[in-house]
Amino acid sequence: MGRPTDDERFLSLVPVDGSTISNRSLREHLGWPDEKYERVRDQLVERGLVVRGPGPGGTVRRADTQQASEDDEQDDAETHAALSRQEKKFLSLIPEDGSTINNRVLREQLGWNDEKYAQVRDQLVERGLVVRGPGPGGTVRRADTQQASEDDEQDDAETHAALSRQEKKFLSLIPEDGSTINNRVLREQLGWNDEKYEQVRDQLVERGLVVRGPGPGGTVRRADTEQTSEDDEQDDAETHAALSRQAKKLLSLIPEDGSTINNRVLREQLGWNDEKYEQVRDQLVERGLVVRGPGPGGTVRRADTEQTSEDDDQDDAEIHAALSRQAKKFLSLIPEDGSTINNRVLREQLGWNDEKYEQVRDQLVERGLVVRGPGPGGTVRRADTEQTSEDDEQDAESNAALSRQENMPSGRGRGTGIYRAEGAKPPPISAATPKPPPVSAVTPKPPPVSAATPKPPPVSAATPKPPPVSAATPKPRVEHDTRHRPDERAAPKRPIKIFIAYVQSDELLKKDLLEHLRPLEKSKLIEIWHDHMITPGEDWKGVLHQRLQEADIIIFLISPIFINSDYCNGDEMETALARHKSGEAVVVPVILRPCLWQLDRVLGRLRALPKDDMPVTKWSDRDDAFANIAHGIYDTVQKLLLKL
User: What CA–CA distance (Å, rounded) separates 452 from 323?
Assistant: First the structure.
C-alpha cells in the first residue's frame, strides 16, 4: 500500500459528520508549516472537496455537508478581514461561549511577554472583536456576546485604577470566592522574596483591596467579602504576638485540624538542621502553641486541639527513653501499619553503610522495638504490631535454604571468594569428618608412591585427610565471587542527573513529584535540577542550556499550558529531543493534566508516566500517581547506572 498523499492526509483529519475543525488544530495535527498547509487546503477548496468556514483563525469542513460554502466564505471574509496571524492566534484561545478569560492565563498560553500581549489585545479591542473586562489582572471576552462592553470597561477602570503590574499579579492569585490564602503559599506562587511580597501586600491593604487574616504565617483575602478586616487583624495580632519569622514558618506547616506531623517530615520541609529545628520547636512548646507527641522520631501538633500535652509527653518519654538519634531516625522510616520494609530499601533511605545499619538495627531488636523478618536480604517491622516474632522465626527457618546471594546471615561469609558448583560437596573441615582409621594389617597398606600416584599428605588430627576426588565428588572450584546480594550493590560512580522542565502554573504538582523522588536523592542515585535553583545574578539562559546538556534524564511535566508554551516549541525542546534521539539522554514525559500531547509528532511516540498515560489529576489518590511515576523513573535510573 502506497504512502498517502498530502491531500489524503489532510482529508483524513477533517470530520466526516459535517462538523468543522479549526485551521490551527488541523495544522498542528499535520505538523506542517503555514505555507504548506494553506497550499494544500486551497487546492482542496478549488476542487470542491473542502469548504472554509468562519471563526478565529478560520475553520474547514467537508464540502458534502448541508452548510453552504458561499455563506461560510462570506462570513470568513467579513470576520477576519485584515487580521494578522498573531491576532488570529489570540482570538482562537478566547472562549466562544461568551465567557471571559483572565489576561494572565491567556498570556501564559500564548507564551508572549506583557508588551506583545497588550499590543495585540488592544488592536483587537479597537477593531471591536474583543472586549476587556474587570477583575484582578483584567479579563477579555469576544465582542459578539450579550455582555456590554461599556459596563466592562467602566468596572475595569474603577477596580484597577492606578494599580501597578505587581499589584495586579498579586490580586490575580487571591481566590474570588472570599476564601483566604496563606501568605507563604501565595509568596511561593509569586516567586518573590519576603520584602517584595510584604511591600505589595501592604499597599493593597492600604487601598482597601486586600484584608490580612489570622493563622500561622498569616493569610490574605479579598476585601469585598463578608469577613471584616478589623476582626482579622485583631486575631492576627493576638495569635502571632512576638513570634519570630522562623517560628511563624514552623507553625504554618503544622496541620490546623489537630492532627500530628512527624518531626523528621517537618524538619525536611523547612530545610533546617536538627539544632535549629529543635530550638524553634522548643520555643513554641514553651509558649504553649505547640505540643510534642509520641512516635518514632516524635511528632508535633497545635496546642489548641483536644489532645493533652501531658499524655503526649508522657508517652514520648516512655517510648523514646534512651534512644539515640540514629535509632529514632531508623524507627521513623519503618511503616506504622505493621507492614515490613526490606533491609536494602531502608538502608538506602538512611544512606548508611552495612556495619552502621546492622548495629542500629540489632540494638532496636534487643530492645524489643523492631522484629526481623524473612525474605531475600531480610526485612524489619515494628514490634508493636499483631504479628508474632515466633511466626517470623519460623519463616526465617523455612528461608534458611536460600542461597548466599539471596539471604546471607548478618556478619558471615563476606570476602570468602568461594563459589561452589551446584551439587558439589564441600571438603570436610570439621569434627564431622571422622579421622581415617590407623594403618594396620586389616587396612591394606597404600601402594608405593610413584609419579603416577602422588603421595597424600600425612594424616593428623590437625589436618583431616580429604576424600579422594572422583566423578561422584567433583572438586570444588575456587574463584573470586563477583556477585552481590541485592542489598550489597556498589555505590554508583556518580548520581544520574535529572532536568525537570515545567510551566509556573504546575509548580505545586512539581513539588509533589520532588517529594516522591527525594528518597532517590538521599540515596545519591539522582541529582535533580530545575529553574528555581538558578541563583540571583546568574545568566539563566546559559545555566539552563548547560544543565540541559549535562542531564541524563529530561522530564517534561506535560499540561495544556506547557504544550502551548514557547518552551515546548523552542530551542530547548529541540535540544532535549535531539539528545534523546542520539542516546545521550532519556526524555520522559510526565502527564500532569489532560491534554492532546499524543498528537505531538515527537512526544507522542515516547513512553510516558504514570501508567496507562493517565494524567495525575485524574487519579483518585495523587500520591499513588506520583509513586507510580517515581517507580518508573527509578527503573530508568537503574538502567542508566549500568552504563556508567
Answer: 68
Q: Is residue 449 part of a domain?
A: no
pLDDT digits over 146-194, tens only?
Answer: 444 444 455 445 445 557 888 888 988 998 888 888 888 888 889 888 8
Q: What number of other Cβ atoms are within 10 A of residue 115's Cβ?
A: 8
Question: Which run of H or E residues covers position 380?
Answer: strand 379-382
CATH number (domain holding residue 258): 1.10.10.10
Count of the separate structural domains present in the chain:
6
pLDDT 10s digits, 305-333: 544 444 445 544 544 555 678 888 888 88
- Domain span at 526: 492-643
Instruction: Of 578, 571, 575, 569, give the one whose Cα is nearest residue 600.
Output: 569
Q: Tell me if the bond preceding 610 is cis, omega within 30° of 0.
A: yes
Q: Is residue 431 part of a domain?
A: no
Q: Which of 350-364, 410-424, 491-505 has the lowest mean pLDDT?
A: 410-424
C-alpha cell at 532: 528555581
CB 274 within 8 A of CB 321: no
| Pairing, β 59-62 against β 21-22 | antiparallel
- Which of 220, 241, 262 terminates a domain? The answer is 241
User: Does residue 415 carry a pLDDT above 60?
Assistant: no
Task: For residues 120 and 352, give the distance between their C-alpha atoms in angstroms, rounded to a whole number.
Answer: 59
Q: What is the DSSP letter of 128?
A: T
What is the DSSP code (8-state) at residue 609? B
Tell whether the model's pLDDT for residue 513 goes beyond 50: yes
Residues 361, 380 contacting (CB under 8 angstroms): yes
**Distance of alpha carbon 535 from alpha carbon 542, whole angstroms:** 12
- Mean pLDDT to the nearest integer, 83-105: 86
Separation between Cα atoms, residue 173 and residue 191, nearest integer Å? 12
* Whether the predicted pLDDT of 587 surpasses 60: yes
pTM over 0.90: no
Residue 377 has a pLDDT of 77
Give me the mean pLDDT over the 343-357 stretch: 86
C-beta neighbour count of 594 within 10 angstroms: 13
Give phi and psi for 483, each to the nearest 5. -80, 155
Q: Within 10 Å of residue 5's Cβ, how many Cβ atoms?
A: 10
Is 487 within a domain?
A: no
Decide: 143 and 128 in contact? Cβ < 8 Å. yes
- Asked if 268 contacts 262 with a C-beta cutoff of 8 angstroms, the reply is no
The full 3-state SS of 142-201, as one line of letters, equals ECCCCCCHHHHHHHHHHHHCCCCHHHHHHHHCCCCCCCCEEHHHHHHHHCCCHHHHHHHH
Q: How confident is the model at residue 199 (pLDDT cuts 50, 70, 90)?
A: confident
Reduce the DSSP state of residue 441 to 3 states and report it: coil
Is pLDDT of 476 > 70? no
What is the per-residue DSSP string for 251-320?
A: HHTS-TTS--EEHHHHHHHHT--HHHHHHHHHHHHHTTSEEEE-STT-EEEETTSSS-HHHHHHHHHHHS
Instruction: Give the pLDDT band (50/70/90) at residue 496.
Output: very high
Q: Which residue has the cell 475553520?
A: 59
Contacts of 615 (CB under 8 A, 6+ apart): 591, 592, 593, 594, 595
